[in-house]
Structures are given as structure tokens and as C-alpha cells.
Design brief:
The protein is of the alpha+beta class and 268 residues long. It contains 11 helices and 7 strands.
Amino acid sequence: MSDMLTTRQVQEMLQVDRTTIYRFVESGQLPAVRVGKQWRFAQADIDRLLHKSPVAEASGRMTPMVSHAPPPSILGSARDHHPAGLAELLPLACAQMIQDTFAEALSVMMVITDMAGQPVTQVSHACGLYRAVIQDPEGVAHCIRTWQQLAGAPTLQPKFSASELGLLCARGLIRAGNELKGMVFIGGIAPAAWPPTSQEVKALAASLDIEPGFIEAHMNEVYYLDRAAQERALEFVQRIADVYSHILEDRQALTGRLQAIASLTTLS
């Protein structure tokens, strides 16, 4: 095991964040071995990824252990065989700047995910409890499960519900025409009954396989919004999603015009 690389070493080599590496592992793109609570990676597998296609430089701010989309170069030829997903349709650098601005203005965490709950942007304005929990792979899985549950919620109007961490969260839907493409997720908001009881903290710690004291140390690093601020955030989440919907529609219309021009050029 001495020649195996740690997650941090792989982050530095691939220039991606921790959550992206976990998604590579889950999808089978990157073989890994579990040693206790940590993942280890073979140098040969990392070299293979780097040799296959150089990793693109990140266009936005790279915050450690905050989610963003897999680098386009690593996605490789998959885009040639499947319909374009949200990560391919959105101008991610622009989307990230819009998201960062709204998250700070509303004092909430914010991320854009596809309809499978996979993040395509970095989490903006992440609270301390979230940053602490996602240091563990199971913590990442908890967050993604929450996003997946919200993606499948029957209601079309945003409303607050409890995440697996016990914090308030809500989502607005991103559409391209009549097709749902993704969602804007807000969270990190403390509910009225916060902090949790010691019993609830122990249950959460057990599900994450970490010490209760570690969670308690970050329990107050969340966003405390009064009723008016919560209603304002809830009102804005769908409006923000609508902004991204308009961006998608404009880009698709532009793509259609370019394809038509290309067809005329070919015919002439």
C-alpha cells in the first residue's frame, strides 16, 4: 500500500475537488481501494487518466472539498454518444458567478445539479457544517441523496424540507423547453429546532461513521435566517432557476442557427 496515493494527492494531480474524485470512483472511471475510512489510488490509474486527456484548467474558484462538475476532458467521448447534459449546456463559468452572487446575497448555500442530483457547479457559500461533513465519502453521499430526493419531489413549487443533515433546503427547477434539465438547490439553513439533541447528533454521527464530537464542533456553523429571510430565499430560488432556463434556451437557439448556417455552407 506504500505506493498508493491518497485522495489529497489525487486532487493535486488532477486539479479537481474531493467530491469529483468520489464521483469518478462511484462511476467506475477511477479504481480505488478502501483502507479504513480512506480511499487509496494506484499511480498507474492516475497516469492513465492524465495520459488519456489532459485535465482542463478550472475556470472558477477551486474551493477544497466543494462540489463541481467533472472536467470536460475526463468526460471524453461520452458526450459523442449521449444527449448533452446540463454540464455541457450551461456556460459553467458564467453560471458559477451568478450562483456565487445570489448565494451570498441570500445568505444560503447554493449549487446547481442535474436531475440525477449530481452537482455541476461548485457549492457556493458553503456552511461550516457542510464543509466538515463532506470530508468523509459518506457525508458526500448524504448530500447527493438529499439532492436526488428533491429532484424527484412531486411538487413543482419550491418549499422547504429537511436534508439528511437536518438543515432546511429547497430547489427550483431548470427547464429547457418542456424538458427538466436540473435544479438550483439552496440549503444550509437552520430550522426552528436547532441545534439537534444529543441523541439526534449521535444518530447522524453513526450514519456518517464519524465521532459525534466532530459534528458538535461544527453544529452552529450554519445559516440562521429569520422568517422573512427564509421566505425571500424561497421566493428567489425558482427565479434563479428561471435565469438558467433562459440561458439554456438562448444557447440552444444559437446552436440551432449555427447548425443551419453550417448546413447551408455544406450545400453550397
